[in-house]
Write a structure and sequence with these properties.
Number of strands: 18
Shape: elongated
Order of helices and strands: EHEHEHEHEHEHEHEHEHEEHEEEEHEHEE
Bound molecules: pyridoxal-5'-phosphate
Amino acid sequence: MDLLALQTPALLLERTRLERNLAAMRERARSLGVALRPHLKTAKSAHIARLATAGGPAAITVSTVREAEYFAAHGVSDIVYAVGITPDKIGRAAALAARGVTLRMITDCVEGAAALAAFEPAEAGPLRVLLEIDTGAGRAGVLPDSDALLAVAARLTEGTGAVLDGVLTHAGHSYGCRSLEEMSRVAEEERSGAVRAAERLRAAGHACPMVSVGSTPTAVAARDLDGVTEMRPGVYMFFDLDQATIGSCGRDDIALSVLASVIGHNRHAGHILLDAGALALSKDVSAAEIRPEIGYGDVCDALSLEPLLGFHVHSVHQEHGMVPVAGDADYERLPVGAKVRILPNHACITAAAHAHYDVVDGAEVVERWDRVNGW
Ligand code: PLP
């Protein structure tokens, strides 16, 4: 099928770019001597999970219990659920363990540790847990040198409900970097903080075999991952304008875009209207922090994906995207009914509004892959 025949808005995935991104990250993990446990929070697709883990163990990271259930139903049996567990979700996680899935949960507080420790082990054995460490992002996790690290570990291992398999950290502050050099520095903070936490836990008598790190910028820029066992980047599969703007990828690595149609010319306001607004693109303007003109996304030629210079989605309503234009020549360039593609600021959030990918190779839609949304 010709991609121009798709109903819009549609989420397009460039197969060649996706495969290139996946292969490059596999090679990085190999050369750094760590396992790759890709984070499927961006792709949320069983098809992409298979491609991302090809040639290695089918070990993945997820951001919702719903994703864990979906990927387990598609045969993935080694999963880290990398968002702090709440007691009411332990039952769903244990049900997956009972079906033979190695599902590791994370916690960073004594309340979570107590709930996990109180679990009554069934045939599948105790729950498998990683302690979340804050290596500088300031989002979640205990600090590597804190008393809380040992207190949470002690509480977790008091009962028979859970075993401590190691530590996990996500250097989210790598998104504040503006060069590969800065990303390398944050990658070293991520590595050394996680390794220090693991060493302190070992000194306190915990085995702590896993040391799991990861964000896309640090995975791209890390020089050395000594003491780390695995990395968990996710957005590298698609990349986006945010990543291109901070320098962790090139613009030509961006594999995800939204196909949209021109639905009107508002000559008195001076803009072209697209049928891709806040729902199809998201309201994320992360790349605009560095390049304000980007707004809600870069407008590109529908077939070549080359930027249509000077065209950006400047504002959005729920289903409308507005592209300011300079004059009549611009309206002629993009007549009503014309199709364009928008490169997104933040691939994870843009993809989350869509039920599937239309996978494209050149001008052809070659496949349709489903996604799992929700919690
Ligand atoms: N691990 C955790 C815990 C995360 O929250 C994330 C992303 O939010 C990742 C890994 C993947 O990082 P990125 O989105 O930079 O690829």
